[in-house]
Structure formats: C-alpha cells, structure tokens
Amino acid sequence: MENVNNLKEAKTMSLPSPSPSSSADSAPVPGPIRRPDYIQVRKFCFNYTPDVRVLHHITMDIPENEVTAFIGPSGCGKTTLLRNFNRMNDLIDGISHEGLITVDGQDIFDPNLEVISLRKRIGMVFQKSNPFPKSIYENVVYSLRIAGQRDKGILDEVVERSLRGAALWEEVKDRLQQSALGLSGGQMQRLCIARAIANQPHILLMDEPCSALDPIATAKIEELIGELKEQFTVVIVTHNMQQAARVSDRTAYFYLGKLIEMDATKKIFSNPTKKETEDYISGRFG
After folding, report:
1. Is 78 helix (H, G, I), strand (E, B) or coil?
2. Dihedral of CA 206/225/70/87: which sign?
3. Where do runs of H (alpha helix) occur along the chain?
4. Tens digit of pLDDT for each residue in 118-153?
5. What is d(CA 155, CA 100) in angstroms, rounded to the nearest whole number?
6. Triad 77, 185, 211: Cα angle to 5°
7. Distances (CA, A) of 30 to 27, 65, 104, 250, 282
8. What is the pLDDT of residues 178-225, one digit of tens each?
9. Distances (CA, A) of 158 to 66, 132, 256
10. Do the beta carbons of residue 107 and residue 101 sit within 8 Å?
11. Strands 203-207 and 122-125
12. Other beta carbons less than 10 A from residue 23's beta carbon
C-alpha cells in the first residue's frame, strides 16, 4: 500500500522544465543517411558467349553499410554477378550483358566511367588468399605505390589503419618487413582484406573468403565482417548457409542464373516466401 501511495505522490509532483540549452544538448544526433538501394541491379542479363547465358533478368537492391549474402548451389551465377559489380568479368573475351547496374546512382557500364576508378571504390577479396611475394608492409601499400604515393608517413598510416581494420595489426606489427608468405592461412586472408581496404573503398566484395580456412580462422573473419559493415557495404558469396545466417543482414538465393528470392536474412532462413528457397535451405536439394 505504501508503494501505491508513493507512486501517487510521485505522479502529483511537478517536474522542472528542461532549459532550452539542456534540451538541445540531449537531442539525438542524426546518423548518416544510408541508401537502401546503394547498389541497384535492374533486369540484368549476362552471357559468357552468345549461346551461354548465365544470369537471367536479375533485379535487386543492396543496402548501404549492410552485409548482403549470395547463396545457392554451384553454377547458379552468384559469383558471376559479384564480379560484375567491379567489372572483373571485362577481362573475359566474348562476354555481353543487358540491363543496368548502378552504384550510388552511377551506371557502372557508362562508357565515360574509368574502370580503374570504379575498382578503387569497390575492393575485392577472393576465395583463395593471394598475398604477393613481398613483405606484409608492401602488400598493404601495393596499390598506393602503383598510384605514385611515396610519402612514408602516409604509407605508414595506411598500413596501421588497414591492418587494424582487418584485425591483424596486433599479430604482425613487429614483423611488417617479413614475407607475407610466412603467415597462416587465416592471417593471409585478413592481410588480403587489409590490402583491399587500403584505398578506403565504398564497397567490399568477398567471394567465399572462408572456404579454405579452419573453423578458428573462419570465426575471426566472420567477426571481422560484422565490424567492416560499419565502414563498407559488404557483399559476400558463400556456399555455407550457416555462415550466411550468422554474418549477413540480407540474403539472396540464386538458382540456375535466376534470383529466386531476396529478403532479410532472418526471414529467408525462418520463413522464406518461395518453396524453392525453402527446399534449398532445408537441404532437400543442393
């Protein structure tokens, strides 16, 4: 009864009005506006040859500063689409495409767009770690040296920032001049991530980055992916559905070159809309 009376008394007490300055100070600071359609794909088709079409009328939106996972059986087109985002497929003779892909509103196939500038904005980490036969330091700054950067202070800063961003700094800071080939498999892959983010790209593409790693190294990469999305828009291709469920915000399921379904990862794995998605998720095929 005493508690009830105390509550009634508290309700009748007048609270001091906040001063204008204190109200302004306590107002939440709005965060950066993040585009839900940072990468837009519209009716995109892709052929390796005139007779071999591997992507069929793909339409999707990939949000900014989130992790989007592409899943599906081998040969479904997920890596082909990923490699179109930074136009890596341009290196293959005989390819052709239809439709549109934009990044932050810019058509990536605009003939006036320099492909090198596009690839500076879109870093990529491949399935197999591929450090150069150089020192750890030189691996990280390789792209900056190619661009003509010679200022040691700037290079040192980029090395530390990138290795910290890849959760590798504490492990290698005392051996930066040693060969990168002496690192473990998981460390090599994180070094490749550091190299990919050294140019501070806007997007990070990851093509099965953990497929050749042991569970401990895989866990470190997955934890790192969750941190990277604070700075980058991450798109990851994976055959490991449990990994997609752990690391991604949105998941897209591909089959035979078609986008079957794309939605929030929790919904895809708990209540997919399409039966084809449910069959794949549940292991009925694939």
Report:
1. helix
2. negative
3. 2-12, 20-26, 78-85, 115-121, 136-146, 152-165, 169-172, 185-197, 215-228, 241-247, 265-270, 275-281
4. 998 999 999 888 999 999 999 999 999 988 989 999
5. 37
6. 25
7. 9, 16, 21, 24, 41
8. 999 999 999 999 999 999 999 899 999 999 999 888 899 899 999 999
9. 24, 18, 41
10. yes
11. parallel
12. 10
Give the helix, strand, coil percentages of the chain, each rounded to 5.
40, 25, 35
Q: Can you give the pLDDT at residue 2?
A: 44
Residue 28 pLDDT: 56
- Whether residue 10 is predicted with pLDDT greater than 60 in this model: the reply is no
Q: Which two tokens stand for residue 160?
A: 């530390």
CA–CA distance, 143 with 105 (Å, rounded to integer): 26
DSSP state of 56: E
pLDDT in tens, 55-64: 999 999 999 9
Beta pairing class for 39-49 and 96-103 = antiparallel
Orientation angle between helical segments 152-165 and 185-197, nearest 10 degrees: 130
The alpha-helical segments, DSSP class H, found in 166-214 are 169-172, 185-197
Q: How remote is the C-alpha of 242 from its chain's centroid?
A: 17
Task: Summarize pLDDT for 246-278 with one digit per residue, the tens.
Answer: 999 999 999 999 999 999 999 999 999 999 999
29 secondary structure, DSSP code: P
CA angle 176, 221, 37 (to 5 degrees): 115
What band does 26 get if pLDDT is binned at 50, 70 and 90?
low
